[in-house]
Write a structure and sequence with these properties.
The chain is an alpha+beta fold and 170 residues long. It is 32% helix and 18% strand.
């Protein structure tokens, strides 16, 4: 585990879900890193007040490989998971089971299937938490499920902040 500044996490968040391939992500990431960070705000899809909250200075960010067998991942943020409503409190294990049993919406299964064809480190999943006890996926549920379904560690950035208010705990 390595503590990092939040720049690469911000860049990953800006492009998560908006790239066609890992190569497309790397290209867009390099282009953005050549710009002035003060202009990045125009690129950000902002969940409520979460952008400012998750990237303020008192949040400590780490680059880590998350073992889904030893780390508890649960949907504690907002009220949706994989584009389905009322999923607050659902664990990664439950989502992997639903995926394998094809109980997720077909579009979600297709997205995860596509990711599984080319599992690469970037873009990393972004996790947040108030402590190391229970991690929540802020961005990248499809990728987290894809890695866990293949019994692989999940490449992630973990942000630990003691006072997240947008983090709903269940």
């Amino acid at each position: 585990m390595k503590e990092i500044d939040n720049t690469e996490v911000k860049v990953t968040y800006i492009f998560h879900g908006r790239v066609k391939s890992p190569e497309d992500f790397r290209r867009k990431k390099e282009e953005l890193l050549q710009q002035d960070p003060s202009t990045w705000g125009d690129n950000i899809y902002n969940y409520e007040k979460s952008w400012d909250e998750f990237f303020k200075d008192e949040v400590k960010w780490y680059k880590i490989e998350v073992d889904p067998k030893t780390h508890k991942l649960v949907n504690n943020i907002f009220d949706s998971l994989c584009m389905t409503d009322d999923r607050l409190g659902v664990s990664l294990d439950e989502m992997v089971t639903e995926y394998k049993e094809k109980k997720l919406p077909k579009s979600e299964v297709n997205t995860i299937d596509e990711i599984r064809k080319n599992l690469v480190e970037e873009p990393r999943v972004i996790l947040i938490a108030n402590s190391w006890g229970k991690l929540s996926v802020f961005d990248g549920w499809h990728r987290a499920i894809a890695f866990a379904a293949d019994n692989r560690s999940i490449p992630a950035y973990v942000g630990i902040g003691k006072d997240f208010t947008a983090l709903k705990i269940k």
